[in-house]
Amino acid sequence: MAYFKYFPKMAYDIRGVTNQRQYDRVTNILARVLVKCHGWADVDGSIVEPLTGASYFIKHTIVDGERPDILAHKFYGDSELHWLFFFTNGVKLLNPYYDWPLTQYDLKKFVDKKYANINAIHHYIDADGYEVDSDAAGATSVTNWIHEETRNDVKRPIRVLQSSMAMTVVDEFKRLMKTQ
Question: Which of 26, 39, 107, 156 is a plausible cystine mate for 49, CB 3.0–4.6 Å?
Fold first, then answer.
């Protein structure tokens, strides 16, 4: 059940030669539908939008090395349903390359490439975790590595659609994509 399999097709001239139009049938990757729900709550429990569909979701914390296809197989028995995580988590998981947490190995490579010194001070925080000046009372230094690791760890908690609802959402997605 691959994600783009359900997208509508359209005629498109991919060659672009003037006065020689030759149309091919291609997948319309610009088609979009929204999850049929009135709103969502953040996975940490704070309300971000007006209503939560919490009864259909469970919380999951992504551990090092878990990929969307592995989790889809674990929760739904079908690795091709990996797109459900992105679809049901809304703006938290828009981009699979940047919004899914990096493995420790990839994070280390990323930080090494981004910073000349991963142990250099990135900023300072107070006891409540707020960023402060270095001369503030009780200021604690945060290194480049800790900063990036913290940013990566924020991506770990996600909502997982209960397996009993997965096919209902897939069927609704297919139905809505036919109307595009």
Answer: 39
Domain that holds residue 15: 3-94+157-178
User: At how many degrees (to 10) do helices 104-114 and 144-153 cross?
Assistant: 140
Radius of gyration of the chain from its Cα atoms, rounded to whole angstroms? 21
- The confidence score (pLDDT) of residue 72 equals 96
| pLDDT confidence band for 39 (50 / 70 / 90) | very low
**Global confidence as pTM:** 0.74
Under DSSP, is residue 123 helix (H, G, I), strand (E, B) or coil? strand
Q: For residue 52, which of 60, 63, 44 has the smallest C-alpha distance?
A: 44
Round to whole Å and give the CA distance between 5 and 149: 36
**Spatial separation of the C-alpha atoms in residues 59 and 91, rounded to whole Å:** 16
pLDDT in tens, 123-137: 999 999 999 999 999
Residue closest to 153 by CA, chosen among 164, 145, 161, 162: 145
Dihedral angle sign, alpha carbons of residues 34, 37, 40, 43:
negative
Residue 99 domain-assigned (yes or no) = no
